[in-house]
Structures are given as C-alpha cells and as structure tokens.
Specification:
The chain has two helices and eight strands. The protein is an alpha+beta fold. The strands form two sheets. It has a five-stranded mixed β-sheet, with no helix packed on it.
C-alpha cells in the first residue's frame, strides 16, 4: 500500500475515533430554560415553554413542576396560595445498551409546550393580584457521554434543574 494512502487512512480513522469516542467524553451537562410571560391577569392561561439544551440528542424532558415561593409571593388569594403543580408528566426515556444513545455531537434542544390555568385558583381563593414568584423545576433524563461502571449498561442519568420566574398578576 502506498504511504500516502496509509497516512490518509490513519488520519481518517483518528478523526472518527476523536469524534465518536473522545468528543462525547467532554459533553457538558444539559442546560434548561423556561419562557413565561412577565405579566398576566388572574383569569389568564399562562403559556409555558420549557427547553433542555445539550451537545447531543440524548436528552428527554419528562417532568415539569410549577413551584410558588410562599414567603416572597404577594399574589396570594384570601385562602393563601396554591401548592406546587405538576404540569407535565411523560414517560422517561432510557439510554441503555450498545445502541441506546445517539453518538453524534451537535447542538440539540428539546422543547415542551404546556400551560397553567390561573382561573381555576380564583374559585378556590388561592390567587390574587401581586407578584407571583417561584421556580419551574425541569426533570430530564440524559446520557452523560462518559463511561462509568454500570451493571446493566444503562448509563441514563436523571437530573432536575430549576428556572426562577417573576410574574406580575393583575386583577
């Protein structure tokens, strides 16, 4: 075989090994974000868009919870404020086995659109005008990219990250 062909094959093999083996070892943890309106009326339905971004497509949002900070929120009704509410619940994805994950590295974002109906809390006396302050907890599964000791070759990790919010509620 010609030496230039050997060098070319070695360079191509090295590039493939770096892309599929070495690069996934440096995948950072996914990040989350939530888009909510900054103002709403007490009878509105809040549109919420949650996203999880990673360097790969091995990320899946399976729970979104809406929490209100009871101590700082001023949008309380006559009976107080509502409890945390689970607004998204889906089956969790698993990344198990030799072909359980996508090995390609590229920017990927998964979106989940949901909503929270504030009007149902008016009847219960659990919301009023003021500042609604809290956080949205996003629970997701992902493949970390790094190796590790596992008994069943399932390297799925579950993580919950929070996104704070502040919404002005008008009467």
């Amino acid at each position: 075989m010609h030496p230039n062909i050997k060098r070319g094959l070695f360079a191509a093999g090295s590039a493939i090994a770096v892309y599929f083996v070495l690069l996934p070892m440096f995948w950072p943890e996914p990040t989350v974000a939530a888009e909510l309106p900054s103002e709403a009326r007490v009878a509105d339905v809040l549109p919420i868009r949650v996203s999880a971004s990673a360097w790969h497509s091995n990320v899946h949002i399976h729970q979104v919870r809406f929490y209100v900070d009871y101590t700082t929120t001023t949008a309380k009704g006559p009976k107080g404020i509502f409890y945390p509410e689970l607004i998204v619940e889906r089956d969790a994805a698993r990344y198990a086995g030799a072909f359980g994950r996508n090995p390609f590295t590229w920017p990927h974002t998964e979106y989940v659109d949901t909503q929270l109906d504030l009007s149902k809390y008016i009847d219960q006396g659990l919301i009023g005008p003021g500042e609604l302050i809290g956080k949205i907890d996003v629970t997701f599964n992902y493949h970390p990219g790094r190796g590790g000791k596992t008994f069943n070759r399932d390297r799925t990790r579950t993580m919950t990250k929070s996104v704070p919010f502040r919404i002005t509620i008008h009467g």
